[in-house]
Amino acid sequence: VAMETVSLEHQIQSVQRHIAFLKKEQMELLHDLHLEILRLQKHCSELTHDLEIKELEARQQDVLDRELEEKCRVMEAQLQEKEKDNLELRKELQHKETLVAALRSSLRNKERRFLEELK
Fold first, then answer.
1. Quick one: which H or E segment has residue 33?
2. How far is CA 46 from CA 32, 59, 71, 115, in A?
3. C-alpha torsion angle, residues 34, 39, 43, 49 (rounded to 10)
4. Model confidence pLDDT, tens digit, residues 38-61
């Protein structure tokens, strides 16, 4: 009976050591898991922040793009207006060149007649 009691005590001590070892291992595992959760939460926060910044930049770029598109439309309209004005000025210039040519011809004719009259 005494041997069995000693054997049982050794088994109990062995089980207690195993339980203490498992508790220690479990605590280390829980600690490591807690650290990993904190690391992942920090990483998630950083990614969320990066995403928010990228979304803000994208919205700002969209605003800039819309502003540039509007400026382009305004400038294209101004360009069309200037082209229209230039076309009108070219027509007017062509008309005036025709008048100048006619006046020169008329002046040459008058000059010839005047010279003929002088002879």
1. helix 2-118
2. 21, 20, 37, 98
3. 80
4. 999 999 999 999 999 999 999 999
- Six-digit token string for 119: 């002879």
- Whether this prediction's pTM lies above 0.70 is answered by no
Query: How far apart, in Å, are the Cα atoms of 34 and each of 24, 28, 31?
Result: 15, 10, 5
pLDDT score of 119 more than 90:
no
Q: Tokens 């207690």 belong to which residue?
A: 16
CA distance 110 to 106: 6
Which of 23, 4, 2 is closest to 12 using CA atoms?
4
Q: How far is CA 93 from the centre of its chain?
A: 48
